[in-house]
C-alpha cells in the first residue's frame, strides 16, 4: 500500500502554489487549437479527439513545434512581467519567493504544453479533479526536466502505447495506475528533504537543486531551455523510437528502485548553462536557421546574452 505524498515537501509546496498562478494551468483543447490553427477543421477535430501523435502529426512537425515552445517559454522566464503579475501576493502568502514561483510556474506551464503536444490527457478537464494524480504527473515532469534518475523512464512508460502492449504480454508485469510511485519518492528525495514552514520561509532556494543557483543569479534563457528539451526528448522517444528492449530495461530500473545518489548531472547534459556566450549565440542562430525562432526573437536572445 502506497504512502501518501508529504504535503510539506518543498517541491510539492512549490507546485501547489505555482499552479494557482493565472496562466500556469493549460487547457489542453485550447492549447492544441492554437498550435494547429492552420489545419483544417477535420484535422483539428481529429487532433482534439486522438491527440497529435495518433492523429498523424509527424515526428518532425511535433519536434519543431516543441522546440519553438521551449524557446518561447524560456524567453518569457527571463522577463519580470510574469512575477510582477502575481495577483494578491500568491507567492508571498505561501512563503515562496516570487522568482522561485516564476521559474516553476513557467516550467510547469511548459511541461503541460509538451505533454499535450505528445498526446497526454487534459489534467484539468474533469468534474472531480484527481489532485493527487495531477501532483504526481507534475512531480514526474519536474523530475525529467531536472534530470532526476528514474523520472524519464517513468514518463516514457506512462506515455507509450507500445509499453502498455509489451508489459501486458509478459507475466507479472502489471502496469498499475501507481507503478511510478517509487519514482515519485525518488524525485522528492532528489529535491531535498521535507521542510517546515519556518525553514521554508528562510530560503527555499537552498533546498531546491539547480534552482537555487539559477534564481540567485537571474533566470536566463539558457537555464530553462535544456530543461524543456530534456522533457521533449523523453516524449519524442516514447512515441517515435522506443523499442521493446528499452521498455523492458526502463521497467527494470523502475522496479529495482532508483537511488538519489544515482541521479543524472541535471544541467550538464545536452546543454550547459556555463557555455560561452559566443557559443550560446551560435546555438540560437541554429534555431533561427531551422525556423524554430524568428529573426526578432533571435535578436532579443542575442541582446540578453550580451548584457549578462
List the helices and strands and how they pair.
Blueprint lengths: L9 H9 L9 H8 L5 H10 L8 H18 L4 H4 L5 H4 L4 H20 L13 H16 L4 H9 L1 H9 L11 H10 L6 H7 L7 H6 L4 H20 L3 H13 L20 H13 L5 H12 L2
Helix pairs in contact: 1-7, 4-7, 4-14, 7-8, 7-14, 8-9, 8-11, 8-14, 9-10, 9-14, 9-15, 16-17
Note the main attributes of this structure:
308 residues, mainly alpha, 61% helix, globular
Helix content: 55-70%
Which whole number gives the mean pLDDT? 76
Total of domains: 2
- Which spans have pLDDT < 50 for at least 5 consecutive residues? 80-94, 193-220, 259-274
Describe the structure.
The chain has 308 residues and is mainly alpha-helical. The protein has two domains: 10-273, no CATH class; 275-308, no CATH class. It has 17 helices and no strands. The chain has helices spanning 10-18, 28-35, 41-50, 59-76, 81-84, 90-93, 98-117, 131-146, 151-159, 161-169, 181-190, 197-203, 211-216, 221-240, 244-256, 277-289, 295-306. It is globular and about 55 Å long. It starts with 9 loop residues before the first helix and ends with a helix. The model is unreliable at 80-94, 193-220 and 259-274 (pLDDT under 50).
Amino acid at each position: 500500500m502506497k504512502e501518501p505524498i508529504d504535503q510539506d515537501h518543498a517541491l510539492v509546496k512549490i507546485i501547489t502554489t505555482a499552479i494557482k498562478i493565472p496562466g500556469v494551468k493549460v487547457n489542453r483543447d485550447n492549447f492544441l487549437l492554437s498550435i494547429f490553427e492552420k489545419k483544417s477543421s477535420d484535422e483539428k477535430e481529429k487532433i482534439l479527439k486522438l491527440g497529435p501523435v495518433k492523429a498523424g502529426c509527424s515526428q518532425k512537425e511535433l519536434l519543431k513545434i516543441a522546440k519553438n515552445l521551449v524557446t518561447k517559454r524560456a524567453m518569457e522566464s527571463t522577463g519580470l512581467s510574469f512575477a510582477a503579475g502575481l495577483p494578491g501576493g500568491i507567492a508571498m502568502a505561501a512563503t515562496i519567493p516570487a522568482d522561485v514561483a516564476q521559474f516553476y510556474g513557467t516550467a510547469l506551464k511548459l511541461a503541460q504544453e509538451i505533454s499535450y503536444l505528445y498526446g497526454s490527457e487534459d489534467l484539468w478537464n474533469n468534474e472531480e479533479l484527481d489532485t493527487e494524480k495531477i501532483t504526481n504527473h507534475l512531480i514526474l515532469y519536474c523530475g525529467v526536466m531536472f534530470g532526476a534518475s528514474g523520472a524519464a523512464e517513468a514518463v516514457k512508460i506512462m506515455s507509450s502505447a507500445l509499453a502498455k502492449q509489451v508489459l501486458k504480454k509478459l507475466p507479472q508485469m502489471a502496469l498499475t495506475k501507481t507503478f511510478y510511485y517509487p519514482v515519485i519518492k525518488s524525485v522528492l528525495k532528489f529535491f531535498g528533504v521535507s521542510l517546515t514552514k519556518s525553514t521554508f520561509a528562510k530560503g527555499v532556494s537552498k533546498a531546491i537543486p539547480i534552482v537555487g543557483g539559477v534564481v540567485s543569479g537571474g533566470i536566463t534563457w539558457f537555464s530553462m531551455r535544456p530543461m524543456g528539451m530534456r522533457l521533449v526528448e523523453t516524449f519524442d522517444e516514447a512515441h517515435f523510437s522506443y523499442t521493446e528492449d528499452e521498455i523492458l530495461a526502463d521497467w527494470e530500473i523502475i522496479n529495482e528502485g532508483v537511488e538519489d545518489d544515482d541521479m543524472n548531472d541535471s544541467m550538464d547534459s545536452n546543454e550547459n548553462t556555463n557555455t560561452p556566450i559566443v557559443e550560446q549565440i551560435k546555438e540560437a542562430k541554429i534555431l533561427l536557421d531551422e525556423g524554430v525562432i524568428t529573426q526578432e526573437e533571435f535578436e532579443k536572445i542575442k541582446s540578453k546574452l550580451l548584457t549578462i
